[in-house]
Amino acid sequence: MADQEVNRHFIEDLIGLPLTATWCEESVTTPGMTFCHTFYELDDGSALAFFQMSEPHDQEFLLGVTNRYNHIALNADVETQEAIHQRLLAEDYPHLIQDHGYVLSLYVTAPDGLELEIAVDPPNVAEIKEKRTADAHGELARWLSGDHRTNNDWRPETHSVTHYPAR
């Protein structure tokens, strides 16, 4: 995402999907890389998710491609996510699971390159959603103004990212 605000205008104002969360974080897989992660909610609770990196050199690899940082996020229950995980394991299909604190995510890349996230909400999703919805626009403005501090108070102390098959 080259410009979160231009994207916000298109997705929220023109398409009509509400901005429901803005997460400002530091990458756990690339220390020092900071980003702004926005979610636009679909009627079923799923979301379109977009990233903008704080540094232009980090941003370049995102433009014009679909990858883990530009993906479709689909909401699921624990049983559905686990069934998908088991089917992927049975095929030895590469994927990863990451606990973000605010959601448990299974990421998998389709053969055509489309990145999918199968996301399971935590038990306290209502509390998290209320806070992020209330401050989504303010957090986006803060991050775009250059304040790249994280706002993820729910991320586990030990960053849990598990790759399958094991690397």
Alpha-carbon Rg, integer: 15 Å
Beta-strand share of residues:
25-35%
**In CATH's first tier, which class applies?**
Alpha Beta
Reading the helices and strands in chain order gives HEEEHEHEEEHE
> What do the pLDDT scores average to?
87
Topology, number of strands: 8
Give the % helix: 25-40%
CATH topology: 2,3-Dihydroxybiphenyl 1,2-Dioxygenase, domain 1
Structure class = alpha+beta
Q: What would CATH call the architecture?
A: Roll
The biggest sheet amounts to: 8 strands, mixed
Q: With helices defined by DSSP (H or I, 4 residues minimum), what is the helix count? A: 4
Which overall shape is indicated by the principal axes computed on the Cα atoms? globular
Protein name: Catechol 2,3-dioxygenase-like lactoylglutathione lyase family enzyme
Domain VOC: 1-121
Keywords: Dioxygenase, Lyase, Oxidoreductase
Region (Disordered): 148-167
